[in-house]
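Recall the central idea of this unit: under ordinary conditions, the amino acid sequence of a chain determines the structure it adopts. In this exercise we apply that idea directly, starting from the sequence alone.
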Amino acid sequence: MQILTTLEQLKVVKILLKYGSVFVKGLGGTLWMSAVTVFFGTILGILIALMRMGKLKPLRTVANVYVEIIRGIPALMQLYFFWLLFPKLVPFEVSDTFSIVVAFIVNASAYISEIIRAGIQAVDKGQWEAARSLGMSEVNMFRRIIFPQAIKNILPALCNEFISTIKGTSLASVFFINELTTGYKTVASATFLALESLCISGIIYLILNVALSKLVAVIERRLKQSDR
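Accordingly, the structure predicted from this sequence is:
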């Protein structure tokens, strides 16, 4: 059974010819939000992971509570929280887009911290002992020995997190932030062709995520080959 009839397919072509730029801008918004989220979410996630693995109990407690709260509250509710409260907490004016991106970063950092913590703990204990036997400081040990190996372990998982983030940014459409799902809503409201516009956005998401999934598979194969 065909999803779209011939008439509907013609409507899709007309939408692309007239509103293609809207979808392109939406795709750009989705990609930059995802990239910023993963980049800064990784930095924050490293800090959270180190706090959870540290020897200071107060820091471990704060990090554990942080992760449990972020993972226990729905992502959309977190977006609403930052959209409503974050502008009131900072001493400068922030846009809706900035508030939503910060919310995405905070949300991603909790999950990325778990990925990083698992990657660090997966490093053979002999590497830790060898580094300590050489008299290396904790900072140098992490920077030169542990982190390079941990990154190799977690890179595929981080790439998968990037794919998940791309799909998750669709929640920003609730706040009419420029991204792909918002582009769909804009075109649908202008043309009254909701199904056709939705199919275009869905196909773009599918192509993008399949391409990234293939890239992750290539990275994983190369990492396995380098281990031999």
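The CA atoms of residues 45 and 108 lie 8 Å apart.
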